[in-house]
Every structure is written in structure tokens, then in C-alpha cells.
Amino acid sequence: METIQTLLQKSTSFFAEKGIGEPKLSAEHLMAHALGVKRLQMFLRFDQPLREDELERFRAMVRRRLQHEPVQYIVGTTEFYGLEFRVSPSVLIPRPETEHLIDTFLDLRKSELLRPDLRLLDIGTGSGAIAVTLAVHMPELRVTATDLSDDILEIARGNAARHGVEDRIQFLRHDILKESPAATDAPFDIVVSNPPYIPAAEVAELQPEIREHEPLEATTDGTDGLRYYRRIAEIVPDLIKNGGLLAVEIGHGQSAEVTGLFSNAGLRDLSVRQDYAGIDRVVTAWR
Could you read off the pLDDT of 18-63 as tens digits, one per residue? Predict the structure, then answer.
């Protein structure tokens, strides 16, 4: 029987030949899941042969990965800001870039620019990654998290329960583009959002993992990528309290348009935070 090490080497090479992204990491995550162990535990068992049932599980997952299905959907979980989140094809996979939103809030909290006992609205919560992570790290927060369907919210609720913050997060089905913010019990002290910002014209250029497997409505707004920012700017008086904070993730090359929209809406002290690649990633503004 083949060992963990030899199967990892073979599958890594096979993934690379077929143009699968991150071939080595993909193989390791799938193998660890097939074995029911953490990756670090797997590394201690390299010379161990696989049982027949483990081998079949691994092969089945390899076949799915060869169809460019994201590893996170195959194993059902992903890590965000050091926390494990359940994900499914109903929700966008949380990205490392979005962790800069969390850093922004924690930096503001540390500098005492955010007072205790705040009410926060997370627009388009998806897996709940932002809402849950902020609730974990800022116990004083009371959070309302919205999204478009009960299926999405069920995943977010499960992630809140997983991390013990379900009693501080209210989950609401709400479409910010079509419905009044009053339905969310606005205005809020803080509004945060990582909205769909990929322009429709660029969807065809996305990696197949995103284009063919992640939910399209969480990826693009169907127009120029700025639709949600325009809507937020339009309803700022009803959405955010005086003295309140708005923080959004943005796409590549969108900082000028987004800051312009927010400035024209009367928001002040606008700031842009870059990610580790030097790309403008987070815009914050105060009302």
C-alpha cells in the first residue's frame, strides 16, 4: 500500500500538470481531511500507509479538485483570522485580504477611537466571518448581520454558535439594495461590508475556482462593481449615527471612486488601508 508521503508527492505533481492552483497545499489539505487529522498531525505520519476507505475518500476529493472545485468547499471549512468557519457553495470563501477589515477595527479599538457597547451592522455577512470574528475579539459589540437568503444565514448562524457568540449576533434576511435600512433597526454606530465588487465585465477573467464554483451574486454586483457603495452612500443618513464609522472592503483600483462617493455623501476623515501586496483594500469614513 502507498504511504501518505508518496500519495502526496504524486497528487501534487498531478495537480501541477493539470494547472490546479496551489497543488502542494491542495494535496495536503485533502489528505488531512481524508485521514480526519490536522495537517501538522499528518506530517508526523508520512510513512504510514492509507487504509482502503481513507484512500477512496482521498481519491474522490482529488477528482473534485481536478474540476477546480475549491479545497474549502471540498473539506467544508476554511480558516479566517485564526478561526475555523464552515463554508459551502452558498457563501463566498473568506479571503486573507478581508482580514485587513478586522485589523482596522482592532486598531481603532486599541486607540480608543471606538467606545464600548457599540451596535454594528454587517451588510452581506455570507459565512459570518466578519461579524463572528469581530464579536469574538470585541465582546462589547452587539451585531446585526444581514444577507439575501435563509440558506446563507443558516451557515453564518452555525459559525456564530461554533465560536460562542450567537447570543450577540442577530441574523436578518435583508437586501440593502431594495429594502429600507429601517428594517435592520438602523441607524448603527458602525457599518461594515465586504460587498460584491467585481465588475461584471471582469467575471470571465476570474479563476475557474471562483467563476464556476463560488456564488456569482457574492462576487459581482452585475454592473461596474460600485453598485453597493453607491447605495450605502445614498442611505448614509438612515444607516449610520452621527459620529459613527463606515468600513468597507474594496477591489483593485476602486479607492478613488469609493472615497469620492463617501465624501460626496458628507462622510469625513476618509482613510484607505492597503493590504500586504500594497493594494488599496479598506476604506473607512466617519459621519
Answer: 999 999 999 999 999 999 999 988 988 889 999 999 999 999 999 9
Judge contact between 184 and 174, C-beta under 8 A.
yes
Residue 79 lies in a domain: no
End-to-end CA distance of the chain: 65
Is a pLDDT exceeding 90 seen at residue 80?
Answer: yes
pLDDT in tens, 195-215: 999 999 999 999 999 999 999
Q: Are 177 and 193 in contact (CB under 8 A)?
A: no
Tell me the residue type at 63: R
Which residue range forms the structural domain that includes residue 32?
4-67
d(CA 157, CA 120): 16
Q: How many of the other CB atoms lie within 10 Å of CB of 141?
A: 23
Helix (H) or strand (E) holding 121: strand 119-123
Radius of gyration of the chain (CA): 21
State the total domains in the chain.
2
State the Cα–Cα distance between residues 169 and 120, nearest whole angstrom: 9
194: which 3 cell numbers? Answer: 465586504
User: Residue 179 maps to which CATH number?
Assistant: 3.40.50.150
Query: Which residues neighbour 192 within 8 Å (Cβ) at sequence distance 6 or greater?
Result: 101, 105, 120, 121, 122, 123, 130, 134, 246, 247, 248
What lies within 8 Å, CB to CB, of 259 at 6+ separation is 270, 272, 283, 285
Are the C-beta atoms of 284 and 114 separated by less than 8 Å?
no
Q: Which pTM value belongs to this model?
A: 0.94
18 and 111 in one domain?
Answer: no
- Return the C-alpha cell found at 227: 453598485
Is 63 found in the same domain as 24? yes
Set of cell numbers at residue 110: 486599541
Task: Mark whether 44 and 141 lie in a shared domain.
Answer: no
Residue 131 exposed, middle or buried by CB count within 10 Å (0-12, 13-18, 19+): buried
- Three cell numbers, residue 246: 463606515
